[in-house]
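## retry 2 of 3
previous attempt timed out at serialization; input unchanged, resubmitting
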Amino acid sequence: MPFDIGTARSAELPNEIKPFTSAERAWLWTAACLAARRAGKPSPLEAAAPCRPETILTCLQRLYRAGRIDVVHAEVLRRWGDRGRPPPRPRRADRSDWHQWQQAMFVLDYTLRRQGIVAGFDLGPDPAPEKIFPALGLSS
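## retry succeeded, writing output
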């Protein structure tokens, strides 16, 4: 039987480590890992991540010390990280969380990209075709 390089590599490296596609995904993963640790459960997909949760927390601490983010940003990140999702787009009465989140993600994204933790772009979830082209009758 000939030696198959592809099989040998996949056996040695079961999980390919890939960077996050956005700072938002990196932060939500970090928040999920921290919540799992508090609950005494294993962290979600920590083996395939490009860093440890502490790395992202250290980046946030450095940004705070440098004055790039403040306590309000940190509170918003913690609050929505615990919920496992970013704040919804703003409505007239509730803009603060969304704006604070966007500011923090902008600064964090640059820092994480420089470290190779974030690469590429996150285009969000693929929209359902029936919502884009309702006239085609693609709904099941």
